[in-house]
Design brief:
Structural class: mainly alpha
Number of strands: 0
Order of helices and strands: HHHHHH
Number of domains: 1
Radius of gyration: 19 Å
Helix content: over 70%
Shape: elongated
Number of helices: 6
Largest sheet: none
Strand content: under 5%
Length: about 180
């Protein structure tokens, strides 16, 4: 797995988990209509992580198979089938599975951040503060890693996360 693909999977998982947890629970967390226990935090986080497992596997597998197909055309092979039937095909499957598992694990962790904060510190703002700190931290690190303006990345993730939280309050999915 390339370092840029690893970064993509980790960032996708963490941010997806954070935002999924916020959109699902923002209404009840803000209104204080439900207490979040650690067991519920784990269940919601598992749902957030597992929901992307199949999607990430299929998309990565299709992308990697497409790269093999492109390589076959670049090599002027008469047919792409021998390359796709080679050991490379198994390697592609394993890589897609690893990418999907990495993203899923990171999504679980991302969702646990605000939900565990709400379970440990039962005030309505705990989840939002934890999610905000996490999003700013992720944005700052991503900005630094990709050579962009780290503060802008942090601000954009915070604004995006805030918009998702507002949508979650409005949708009131769990409430």
């Amino acid at each position: 797995m390339s370092s840029s693909q690893s970064l993509f999977n980790v960032a996708l998982g963490l941010i997806d988990g954070l935002l999924t947890a916020l959109v699902l629970t923002a209404g009840v967390l803000l209104h204080g209509t439900a207490k979040v226990g650690m067991d519920q935090a784990v269940r919601v986080s598992l749902a957030a992580g597992l929901s992307g497992l199949f999607t990430v596997f299929v998309s990565d597998y299709a992308r990697l198979r497409g790269e093999l197909s492109h390589a076959a055309r670049e090599l002027n092979l008469v047919s792409v089938r021998p390359l796709l039937a080679s050991r490379l095909s198994g390697k592609v499957r394993r890589q897609a599975a690893l990418d999907a598992l990495t993203t899923t694990a990171c999504s679980f962790v991302g969702a646990m951040i605000p939900l565990a904060a709400a379970a440990i510190w039962p005030v309505s703002s705990a989840a939002f503060i934890a999610a905000s700190i996490a999003l700013v931290s992720i944005g700052f690190v991503l900005g630094r890693v990709v050579g962009g303006p780290a503060l802008l990345w942090a601000a954009l993730l915070l604004v995006g996360g805030s918009a998702i939280a507002v949508a979650g309050v409005w949708l009131d999915v769990v409430g």
